[in-house]
Structure formats: C-alpha cells, structure tokens
Design goal:
single chain; mainly beta; Immunoglobulin-like; SH3 type barrels; six-stranded mixed beta sheet; 1 helix; 24 strands; about 40% strand; disordered N terminus
Length: about 375
C-alpha cells in the first residue's frame, strides 16, 4: 500500500495551448508526460525523449507562471537536474518530487545540447502542482482501503519542511536558501556553464560540508556532498551553518579555456583555368568535303582568362600520319564562361579508315575518332 503515495493526478483544469517547442526543435526532444493542462503531485516520472544525433547532454528546468499563465520574461529557469549524458527514447527522463515546490502553476522545459553547439528544447505549459489535493486524495483512498479490509491503514505522511544533515554536530555546512529548491555545484567559482560546468546539485533536503572558502575573494564555498562530489557553490544561493573560523582558503580550479577559434579560411588564389570539355563535327566527315569541328572551351578557374588558340590535328589511326592541321581562337573568358571554337577541316586521304582528331590549348587536350566517308573520293588511291 505504501507505494500508492507515488500516484499522479492528471486533471483537465485550464484551457491553454499545448506544448511549445523552443529553439531548434526536434522530434527526439520531447516531453510526453506530463501533458499541458495537467495536475500532478507526489513523485512523478517525467517521460519523453532526448536523443538527437551527437547529443552531449540534456537537462530539465521549471519556472512559476504569471497570474495570466504566461512565462515570466527575464526570469531565471530553476534547474531540476544536472546535465544527463545518457540518451532517452520514449522513456523516463527524470523522477521528481513535487513536494519540494509550492503548489501552483508552472512551465516545464527540456533542453538538449549537442557536441556541435546546437540546442533543442521543448516546453510544456501549464502544469499545476497540487500537493495538498494529492495527499487529500491519498487519505480518502486509504480510508476506502481500511473500510474494505476492516482494518485501519494509515496513509504515509508528506515530509515536513526542513533538511536532513548526516554530518556530526558543529560541522560547518551549507543548505539552500528558502527560495531555492536546488542549487548547482560547479567546477570552479564562476557562473558559466562552459568555462565552469555544473558537477552536481544540492537540493533543499540535504546539506553540503564546507571544506574551503575561495581564495580568490569571490566568497564561494568549496563543499562535499553526501555522494562524494566536491565542487563550488555561490554564497548567494546557500546559507552557511556552523563555525567557519577554521575553514581554510582554497584556490578554485581555473575555468576551462574556450576552444581556439577555427582558422580563418584562406581564399584560393585568383587563377584562370581554360580547358577543352567537348568536341563534335558539324556534319559527317567526308573525303574532299570541308566540314567544321566545334571545340568547346570553358574557364573553370576563378579569374578572367587571356584570349587563346586551339590547335587541331587529324591523324590516320592505322599509320599515325597527320592528314590535317588547323587552329581557331577564343576571346577572354570570365570564370564559368564557355566558348565554341569552330575549325574547318578538309581531309582527302585514308578513305573508309578511322581518323582521330586531337584538339589542344595550353595543358588541356581532347580527342575523338571518326571514319572518313568516301564521298567523291571513291576509287582514288591513298598515298
């Protein structure tokens, strides 16, 4: 019966819009429970997904809503978790205890950050925390159970406000301020999630032993938590308890240096690059009949080219003899521009044999083969 205290109320209370997806939304960054316009109490599993490619970590936060159910502007979101690196797909993101906050209306935000610096978030609002109503329901439920079994079964009672500290009496320690449900324990004495990341959290139910005071003069406390985490906490969010006269001054670790900026890309040098990328005859090559060869040149560089010349040779493949030589010119070409050089060709030898046309300009060359048709040269001997 004891576990009935962990039940959750989900009641339609308000008429508000559903979840709001924030900066850089993703289907794999989503709170699926509680849903908007829900009432919760006791220990609650926050369900959803946090599993984008390249995920570094995720965390959850909450914030009390204004009277008109809007999210306060310029107000800090209160952390519910530390950074969690294990991805979750359609599962439990975190289990929370609503008795650590006052009854009221809240917004809940899930944030996922990637190794490449991208950020995805999902906000669910409004959610009503109703511990008083929750425990009243539990009492009625236990009364019904007692009636059914004929024996009184007392419901578990909510924990009373305050904190539990297992340290020996007189040990200097810190507890959260009354306004803080939990506070961050950081690597060093600076509020900077990159240079001074969060190591753990201290909630209002527990304490952290003070083992040092920042030697930098910031006033931050070096504390050790029950789980063994040693880190730094700001004096603005905790209250010291006990005699601090014997606490030593300790220099905090240096903040993590930011990664160096990426090198400035060096633009490629300005240079033209004219090349031949195609060649075709204007008609079927025929002995004794002039035909044109269209040679396509293009400037694939990033600068304007100089004017140039394309040379063309016709070679009989069987013997290697050159049967024709000609040329044509092209004007200056802008980057990405092309031009067709037209070179007339006349060949009268090696009829019905394979010829090869070789075009060249600068370091670029292009070849194609054809069979010379006989035409009026039929019967004329080839030298």
């Amino acid at each position: 019966m004891k576990h009935l205290i962990f039940a959750v109320l989900v009641v339609g209370l308000l008429t508000m819009a559903p979840a709001v997806v924030g900066q850089g939304s993703s289907d794999m960054v989503q709170i699926t429970f509680p849903v908007p316009v829900s009432e919760i109490g006791g220990q609650v599993d926050i369900l959803g997904s946090a599993a984008v490619p390249g995920m570094a970590y995720y965390y959850l936060e909450y914030i009390p809503l204004n009277a008109d159910l809007s999210i306060p502007e310029n107000a800090p979101w209160i952390p519910m978790t530390i950074a969690i690196t294990e991805p979750v797909v359609a599962g439990t993101l975190v289990t929370v205890d609503t008795t650590t906050v006052e009854d009221g209306l809240y917004a809940l935000r899930l944030t996922v950050n990637t190794l490449e610096g991208q950020s995805f978030s999902d906000v669910v609002t409004p959610i009503r925390v109703s511990n008083e109503r929750f425990f009243a329901l539990i009492e009625r439920l236990y009364a019904l159970i007692s009636q059914q079994i004929g024996q009184e079964v007392a419901p578990p009672q909510p924990e009373q406000p305050g904190y539990m500290c297992a340290l020996p009496e007189g040990t200097p320690h810190v507890v959260t301020n009354e306004a803080q449900a939990s506070v961050n324990i950081r690597l060093c004495d600076r509020v900077d999630n990159t240079a001074c990341p969060v190591l753990d959290m201290l909630n209002w139910r527990s304490c952290g032993q003070i083992i040092g005071v920042s030697g930098s003069g910031s006033g931050w406390f070096q504390v050790e938590l029950d789980g063994g985490t040693v880190g730094w906490v700001s004096p603005t969010v905790v209250r010291p308890v006990g005699d601090l006269s014997g606490v030593p001054a300790v220099m905090p670790p240096a903040p993590i240096a930011p990664p160096p900026p990426p090198p400035t890309p060096v633009p490629p040098p300005m240079q033209a690059n004219v090349m031949i990328n195609g060649m075709s005859p204007s008609a079927a090559p025929t002995c004794g009949v002039a035909f044109n060869i269209n040679v396509n040149v293009a400037n694939t560089g990033n600068d304007v080219s100089q004017p140039g010349t394309v040379t063309l040779q016709d070679v009989a493949v069987r013997t290697g003899n050159v049967t024709f030589t000609g040329s044509g010119t092209f004007p200056p070409l802008n980057p990405g521009a092309s031009f067709v050089v037209v070179i007339p060709v006349l060949t009268t030898t090696y009829v019905n044999e394979t010829h090869q046309l070789n075009a060249r300009t600068g370091e670029s060359q292009f070849s194609m083969q054809y069979v010379l048709q006989a035409g009026d040269c039929l019967g004329t001997p080839t030298p």
